[in-house]
Write a structure and sequence with these properties.
By secondary structure, this protein is α+β, with helices and mostly antiparallel strands. It has a single domain, classed as 2-Layer Sandwich (Translation Initiation Factor IF3). The protein is built from 2 helices and 4 strands; from the N terminus they run ββααββ. A 4-stranded mixed beta sheet has the order 1-3-4-2. A hairpin with a 5-residue loop joins strand 3 and strand 4. The two termini are 13 Å apart.
Length: 103
């Protein structure tokens, strides 16, 4: 599956099939919160949170790809990622784009 942030695939004719998206909501655990508290005091990257966000992005992207495949797409254009806090201690990761078929 070709995934691009651009709105075209150079040299290809595309047929738009529709909006596709994937999302996941993850939560922090007590261990991550304790380590984050220590990092807040001394500064630096909070690796466990970085890992949580990367994992969430991967899951959301795979769900978006699965939705595009169900539509018969072989590419997703205008791909975007967004994150937000749903409630205290949780994070939503959203992947979305336009499913297309190109020739």
């Amino acid at each position: 599956m070709l995934i691009t942030t651009s709105d075209v695939i150079p040299g290809k004719q595309i047929e738009a099939l529709g909006l596709v998206r994937g999302n996941v909501v993850t939560s922090k655990n007590v261990g991550r919160d304790i380590m984050a508290g220590f990092k807040n005091m001394v500064g630096g990257e909070i690796k466990s949170y970085t890992d949580m966000m990367n994992e969430g992005r991967d899951i959301a992207e795979q769900r978006m790809i699965a939705e595009a495949q169900q539509l018969g797409a072989n590419a997703i254009i205008c791909a975007r990622y967004a994150s937000s806090s749903v409630m205290e201690g949780t994070q939503e990761m959203l992947a979305y784009g336009t499913a297309v078929r190109y020739v």
